[in-house]
Amino acid sequence: MKDTFKHKGLRQQLVNILKNKGISNDAVLKAIGNIPRHLFMDSGFLDHAYQDKAFPIAADQTISQPYTVAFQTELLQVKKGDKILEIGTGSGYQCAVLCEMGAKVFSIERQQELFKKTSKFLPRLGYRAKKLIFGDGYKGLLEEAPFDSIIVTAGAPFVPKPLLSQLKVGGRLVIPVGDDVQIMTLFIRKGQKEFEQHEFGEFRFVPLLEDKN
């Protein structure tokens, strides 16, 4: 579990790449500059850790491209102390970014292998989510709702209704919607039944699977 000056230098280069691609939120850039992404990957792939690309991890999943993580996080407009629900813990990297920014994170993962690995690994790095849950992300987490924001880190063929209903008024849901290619979509809850929707172009994610536990 080493984090060297070399790694820190590579992270700063990554931050510069993200700035050049249009990421401007200082807190997001700072979090990505602080988190040792190489520790979230198998040691054989360390050279790839600070390139701006997705990479395979256990259970046929991927650790998202840093630009995608930064883009989704920027859309959330995270404030310190925000209560955030993450659907798809995966490697835990996105969760670490949110914790680093001072959010209270509740995260759900449906792959048992990843869930076990990440729930041990994140606290060892000093990133403590409020709750890591093994379960079905389509259902959200009703007992902890409402949330300031919800982030979905897998491609959803449709927008799960429970997620919209578990947002606070003023809350934001960031979700990639679509089958093969997803459109990054932001929903802002304006009232009890009123949502504002914005779309931000195409991304590719592994699919969000329902009821597969």
TrEMBL record:
**Lineage of the source organism?**
Bacteria, Pseudomonadati, Bacteroidota, Flavobacteriia, Flavobacteriales
Q: What does this protein do?
A: Catalyzes the methyl esterification of L-isoaspartyl residues in peptides and proteins that result from spontaneous decomposition of normal L-aspartyl and L-asparaginyl residues. It plays a role in the repair and/or degradation of damaged proteins.
Residue stretches spanning the membrane: none
Q: Name one Pfam family in it.
A: PCMT
- State the similarity comment: Belongs to the methyltransferase superfamily. L-isoaspartyl/D-aspartyl protein methyltransferase family.
The Enzyme Commission number assigned here is: 2.1.1.77
The active site annotation covers: 64
Q: Which domain of life is it from?
A: Bacteria
Identification of the protein by name: Protein-L-isoaspartate O-methyltransferase
